[in-house]
Amino acid sequence: MGLSSEKKGGGMNVTRRDFFKITGTSAAGAAILGLGLNLKPIKSHAQTLKLRFAKETTSICCYCAVGCGVICSTGESGAGKIINIEGDPDHPVNEGSLCAKGAALSQLVNNDRRLTTPLYRAPYSDKWQKVSWDWALSTIAKRVKKSRDASFEHKNAKGQVVNRTNGIASVGSAALDNEECWMIQALMRSLGLVYIEHQARI
Amino acid sequence: MGRNIIPHIDRLILQRPASKAALAPFRELALLMDQETPCIKPIQVGKEARNTQQKEGFPIFSREDLPIDFITASGLLKKILVHLGQTDRNDAEGLKMALKAAEADSEWTGRLFRGILRQDDKSLSQIAEGVDLGAKALLFLGQIALRPSMHLLRDTLKGDIVKMGWDHGYCPLCGSQPDMAYFAKTGKRYLHCELCGEEWPYSRIKCPFCNTLNQEQLGYFEAEEKEGLRVYFCRECMRYLKTIDKKTFEEIAPLELENLATIYLDLLALENGFK
User: Is the ipTM above a cut-off of 0.90?
Assistant: First the structure.
């Protein structure tokens, strides 16, 4: 019988005879017969339930170098979205536990409070305003260039080549994963930044 | 199980009314089980047996060699047959015949219990046919009668059984298959033995029946309205295992009861082709 990913428990055409045939390994089936149960109310209850099918896949938390094991439950319905992420109890690193960030991993995918457009707060303003990606990216690029040009040091006081800027600092977000952190690190180093920090180390 | 399970049954019925259909009739049997005091010979598991168990993956006992108190089990079975024979059931006549057979032939219950322990379907069917009862019904009643002795054995050997590193899909005490599982607060999965009620840790993503680790073939379903109760299945061997999550429930009952309280999940599993 094929499995539908989300379905009502309807149908329920398991007969007493089927149970007898099927329950070679089902203790519950024997219990039903042994207790002489009337299956009608149990069937009725089952029919009202909406089932959700999922599979579990092991993975590694994306956030830091500890490498905690996680189990991702993926719904078999629709686009196969993550429906739950929890610590892997059989993983030797974390034995099922996760830190607060790891425990919220599923919010990387499912989070109705996640921002989907850039927000800009102008100097001396107390309000955030929605801006376009094009405007945000070109404004950031212009300001980075301006600050970098103004503060770039080719040599230090001893005459040693340093090629650095102390006019810009980078503070990484708590929601950056390892791969994103690597890309940001490479970009910031290429610009000559020295002050590079990430939430996980603070 | 047997001792002090009545409060668990009452609580389950109160908190999960859908379980009443199965638990209310079982409550009567549990009261009978509570009255039994089985007796088994003192047993000690030697170092050699423990080593063999750990290294070779053998359970302490094979099912047919279990040191069971058949006398107490036989007495309990008769009480159960008397009780159920007085209730309004289609097979009341068969139950009365079974009682008659048990009283007339002292070996009848022994044959039944040995048939159950050896998982000898042919012998069980013959015994059941002789008294005009369904073999599965008789199997269940026989298991209930054996349960106080089995649980005494399990409790007696508590601490003597190697469970750490026992990543097998069969019981380290008696070699039987699991009938249910639970997730501890850490998320670790523990399997529950269908016969003796022993519990042992087992890999979270692995089929206990065919040992497959193929994550594409393993999965679960749950009712959206009932968080914490899942049916894990394997599409390689098509077996299923109901699992209750201790993180979700403040208190769970002994798994024998949870198993009965969730029979609707068995119906749904069977409906979806699992066995």
Answer: no
